[in-house]
Amino acid sequence: MPRYRLLVNGRRHDVETEEDTSLLWVLRESLGLTGPKYGCGVGVCGACTSHVDGEAHRPCVVTAAESEGRHVTTIEGLSPRGQHAVQRAWRELDVAQCGYCQPGQIMAAAALLAREPDPDDDAIAAALRDNVCRCGTYPRILAAVRHAAG
Ligand code: FES
């Protein structure tokens, strides 16, 4: 099997896997980073959202091979002990219900605030539009992103 050198959460990893294995599978199964969730597996639900070179990406539709030389960040690496402003806002506003989609929501929100520190409601809605929450926590998500930005 081919080997790939990945940089994940600031650490280098040599991973042996099939050429077409998704980055999501490598993160979860090879590296034990289970924050990115498997929802649809086809880039539609956003449950797996992580950062690649600082931008929100969906590792279920990226291969390990395509990820070589990129900086991958999962929610585990977003901040030491969950102290990113978005994570604090999520806790303060008690956003999560079942919680399954929330790492992806948080990573999408963090990427938004990194490129646009004070987004209006339309910008927040547009950035998070494709992150699905089956519990319908959207109003709290919107409020928490506003809170983190403020
Ligand atoms: Fe990656 Fe749904 S699992 S977008």
UniProtKB/TrEMBL annotation:
Listed name of the protein: (2Fe-2S)-binding protein
PANTHER family, alphabetized: BLR6218 PROTEIN, OXIDOREDUCTASE WITH IRON-SULFUR SUBUNIT
Record has Oxidoreductase as a keyword: yes
Organism this protein belongs to: Prauserella cavernicola
Pfam families recorded: Fer2, Fer2_2
Residue span, 2Fe-2S ferredoxin-type domain: 2-78
Organismal lineage: Bacteria, Bacillati, Actinomycetota, Actinomycetes, Pseudonocardiales
PROSITE patterns listed in its UniProt record: 2FE2S_FER_1, 2FE2S_FER_2
InterPro entries to which the protein is assigned, alphabetical: 2Fe-2S-bd, 2Fe-2S-bd_dom_sf, 2Fe-2S_ferredoxin-like_sf, 2Fe-2S_ferredoxin-type, 2Fe2S_fd_BS, Beta-grasp_dom_sf, Diverse_Oxidoreductases
The entry's keywords: 2Fe-2S, Iron, Iron-sulfur, Metal-binding, Oxidoreductase
MF GO annotations: 2 iron, 2 sulfur cluster binding; metal ion binding; oxidoreductase activity
